[in-house]
Amino acid sequence: MKQLTGNQIRQMFLDYFKSKGHMIEPGASLIPHNDPTLLWINAGVAALKKYFDGSEKPASNRIANAQKSIRTNDIENVGRTARHHTFFEMLGNFSIGDYFKDEAIQFAWEFLTSEEWMGIDKDRLYVSVYTDDARAYEVWTTICGVDPSHILKTDDNFWEIGKGPGGPDSEIFFDRGEKYDPEGLGEKLFFDEMENDRYVEVWNVVFSQYDCDPSIDRKDYKELPQKNIDTGMGLERLVALVQDGETNFDTDLFLPIIRATEAMAKHPYEGEYKMAYRVIADHVRTVTFALSDGANFSNSGRGYVLRRVLRRAVRYGLKLGLDEPFLYKLVPVVADLMEDFYPYLQEHVEFNQKLIKVEEETFKKTLKVGQALLDDEISKAKDGKLSGEVVFKLYDTYGFPFELTQEIAEESGITVSHEDFDAQMNKQKERARNARNVKDSFASQNEELMNFNEPSEFIGYDHLTCDGKIIALFNAEGKMVDSLEDEGMIILDKTCFYAESGGQVADKGTFSADGVDVEVLDVQKTRNKQHIHTVKINGGVLEKGMSLHGEVNVKDRLATTANHSCTHLLQSALVKVLGDHIHQAGSYNCPEYLRFDFNHYEKVTAEQLAEVERIVNEYISAAYPVTKEIMPIEEAKKSGATALFDEKYGDTVRVVTMGDVSKEFCAGCHVENTAQIGLCKIISEESIGSDSRRITAKTKFAAYQDFASEHAMLENIADSAKQKGIKNIDTKVEAAYKTMHDMQKEIDNLKNQIFTLKSKEWATEAKDFGKVNVLIKSVSGMDAGALKDIVSNLKANDDKMVVFFVNTNGEKVVFVSGAGKEAVKAGVHAGQLVKKAAQICSGNGGGKPDMAQAGGKDASKVDEAINAITEELKSL
C-alpha cells in the first residue's frame, strides 16, 4: 500500500474517476442551497438530491466529488471513538441513469487495489452484500475475483430513508490486523457484525434502483425509471488506514491542529487527555468551515448546532488547562492545513477568529449562568437526587458535561443518575432520527416529467404578454394528460411568466383563448429547464396543442422588478458603509417589499442604516443605466461581477450591471434604469441569528406611503405636544424626556428615603429567635421591587436578620424573604422559605439562600403559611 498524504489521496480519487469519464463536481457549501429540509450538507449525495429524484438534469450523468459534510447526531462519540467526526469529507462517485451495478463495483475495486492507484492488498479486503442481491455477489466473485470466504450476506445492506429512491448496497472493509483484535476473534468480528476496530468499512456502494415506500413490503417496491449509483468513502478513515493511524485523528489531517493545541495546553497529547485534543481538533474544523460557508452562531437551527459544537470544544479545553479563549487561535492552522483544496478558507481567517473569540467569551458568561441554575436545582432537589431532565438541560443548554454536574452535586450531598441522563440523551436522538427520516428523504421521481424534453422558451425579460402552444399537461397528481379542466400544471413552447428563482417570486397572471379562462398561480422550473405553470381553470378545457394568450400581472411584475433591482443597490451600499466582508445570505423579492439577508457581526446602528438608505436613494436618483449581458463565466468573474458563494453556475452566466456601483451574476428581472425604482425606504433591520442580519425595505409608491405615514405620526406628536408644526419636534421631545428622567430620579430618591425610614421602623419589630432575629410582616398592595429594597436594607444592617414579607393583592400573594450572612450560616435558606409558603398558597417559586421571591394564588391561606414559616424558624 502506498504511503500518501491526505491531500494526495483526495486528489488521486478525483483523478481516477476523471479518467473514467466523470465530471468533477465542485464541493457544495455546507449550507444547503434551496433545500430547507436539511440543516447541513451531511453526505456526498445530499447536494445531488435534485439529480436523483429527477427534478434537475446534471451536465454529466457521471459525477465525482469530494464533499465536505457535517453531522452532529452522534456528537458525544466524537473523540471517544476512532472514527466519529462532526466535520468530514466524503469522496463519492455517482451515476445518474448511466452505468450501474457492474461498473460501480469494478470502479471501487480497481481504485483500491490497483498498483496504479491505492495499491491495497486484496487479501486485506472484505465485502458485504445484501442477502438477495445475487448480481452484486456475482460481480464481486467472478469479475473482481474476491474469495467467497471474504463476503458477508446480510439483510442490513439496504439503503433507504423514507419514501423515494433507494436500494441494496455493498460495502468494502479493510482488515487492520491483529493489533486491533485484542481478544483474537479474527473473522468472527466481521461475519458476526460485531463492533470492532479491526475490520473497518472503507467504501459503500448504493444501488439506487427502487422507489422505496416503508409502508409496503420491500419485495413490492417498484423499479425506478432512472437507476442511479451513489457511493461514499470517508476521506479521514481512508487516510487513517493508509497512514496506519491509531485513530483518524493520528493522521496529517488532524495532528497539526493537535500539536498547535498542545503548545498552548498544560497537559500533553497522551493518556486521559487524548480525547480532549481530538474533540478540539474535530470541532475547530467544523466551526471554521461552517463559518467560512456562511453559517453563524445563534440559538436555533444550524446556528444552535454550531454553538453547541464550539462550546463542547471549549469545555474540553478546560480539561487541558485552557481557561482563556484559545479556539480562535487554531483557525489559521485549519486554513493552512486545508489550503491546497480549500484556498477560500484563508479569506475568512481574520473574520472567523473574531466571531469565534466573541463566542468563546460569551460562553464563559453562560457557564456562570448554568452554575447559578445548578445551585438553585441542588437547593430544590428532592430525595437528595437531581433529575435526569435537569442534568440534561445543564448539558444541552449550558454546556455542562455530565461529570462536571456530578462533581458539583456530590459536593452538596446530591446524587445524579447516569441512566436518567442517558435516557434523556436517547430521547433527543430519537427525535433527531424521526426528523431525519422525514426530512432527509428524497422526493419520488416523476418519470413522465423527467423524460419530457420538448424545449420551452422564456421571453419574459422583454415581454409581459405572449402567445404559446401547450406542449404538456399534468393533472394535480403529476400524471401527464391530454386535457385538463380543473387544476394542474402546463408547459408551453413559449412563455412570458418568470419561474421562481434567485429569491424572486414567480409571476402570476392569466392564460386565455376562446372559451378558456385560466389563472396562473405559480411557476417553477423543471429539470429540463422548462417553465411549468400551476394553473386553476375558471372556464373551459385545456388540451394539448392548444394556443393560449398569456398576460403577466404587470403591476406586480414591475413592483417586484423594482424591489429586485433595489437589493443589488442595497448590497453595494452595505459594503460601502459596513465593509467588504458583507455578502448576501439570502433574499426575497415580491411585489410588496424586498428582503435582504447578509452576514455581519454586530447590530447596524441607526446612523449606519440611515447612511445606507441615503446611498441607495443617491444611486436611484443618479439614473444609472442597467445592462444585462450573457457571458462566459470566467469572463464574468474577471470583470469583477459578484456571485453567490454557494450557487452553482453553468458555463455562461447573466451579469446585471448598474452604472459603476453594482455588478452581479443574476437571472432575475430588473429595471432598465435605476431611476425606475423611484424611492427606497428601509422598513426594518433585525437579527435573524448571531452575526446574521436582515433588512426589509420598500420601493416606488409603497416607499412613499411609508414616508407619508411617518410624517403623519410626527404631526400627531406635535399636536399632542401643543406644537404648531413638526419643526424642532425632536428637540421638544428630547427636552420632555429629560424632564421626565429628572423627575423619576427625584421620585427614586424620595423612595429610597422612605425605604430607609421603613427599614428603621420595621427593624424594631424584629423578634429574637436565638440564633436569628426574625421579622415576619404582612403588607398589602406594595411593589415587590420596593419590598426587595427594604429586605436588602434590613439584612445589610443586621447579619442575624431574617425577613419574611407577605404582600397580598386580591387573591394573589407574593412572598419576599431575605437573610443576613450569619442567618444563612445558621441554616436559613430564603429560597426554601418562600417556596414552602407559596406551595401552601397553591403557588411555587424559590431563589437563593440570602434573597428570594415566590407567588401564591390563594390568599386565604396566608395565615397558615405565616405559621408554618414561624415554626420553621423557631426550630433552628
UniProtKB/TrEMBL annotation:
Underlying gene: alaS
CDD domains xrefs: AlaRS_core (cd00673)
Subcellular location: Cytoplasm
Annotated domain remarks: Consists of three domains; the N-terminal catalytic domain, the editing domain and the C-terminal C-Ala domain. The editing domain removes incorrectly charged amino acids, while the C-Ala domain, along with tRNA(Ala), serves as a bridge to cooperatively bring together the editing and aminoacylation centers thus stimulating deacylation of misacylated tRNAs.
Keywords: Aminoacyl-tRNA synthetase, ATP-binding, Coiled coil, Cytoplasm, Ligase, Metal-binding, Nucleotide-binding, Protein biosynthesis, RNA-binding, tRNA-binding, Zinc
GO cellular component entries: cytosol
Family listed: Belongs to the class-II aminoacyl-tRNA synthetase family.
EC number of this enzyme: 6.1.1.7
InterPro entries for the chain: aa-tRNA-synth_II/BPL/LPL, Ala-tRNA-lgiase_IIc, Ala-tRNA-ligase_IIc_anticod-bd, Ala-tRNA-synth_IIc_core, Ala-tRNA-synth_IIc_N, Ala-tRNA_ligase, Ala_tRNA_ligase_euk/bac, DHHA1_dom
Domain Alanyl-transfer RNA synthetases family profile: 4-709
Annotated source species: Holdemanella biformis DSM 3989
Alphabetized GO MF terms: alanine-tRNA ligase activity; aminoacyl-tRNA deacylase activity; ATP binding; catalytic activity, acting on a protein; transferase activity; tRNA binding; zinc ion binding
The reaction(s) this protein catalyses: tRNA(Ala) + L-alanine + ATP = L-alanyl-tRNA(Ala) + AMP + diphosphate
Cofactor note (record): Binds 1 zinc ion per subunit.
Name of the protein this chain belongs to: Alanine--tRNA ligase
Coiled coil: 733-760
Cofactor requirement: Zn(2+)
BP terms from Gene Ontology: alanyl-tRNA aminoacylation
Lineage per the UniProt record: Bacteria, Bacillati, Bacillota, Erysipelotrichia, Erysipelotrichales
PROSITE patterns: AA_TRNA_LIGASE_II_ALA
Function in brief: Catalyzes the attachment of alanine to tRNA(Ala) in a two-step reaction: alanine is first activated by ATP to form Ala-AMP and then transferred to the acceptor end of tRNA(Ala). Also edits incorrectly charged Ser-tRNA(Ala) and Gly-tRNA(Ala) via its editing domain.
Major localization listed first in the record, in broad terms: cytoplasm
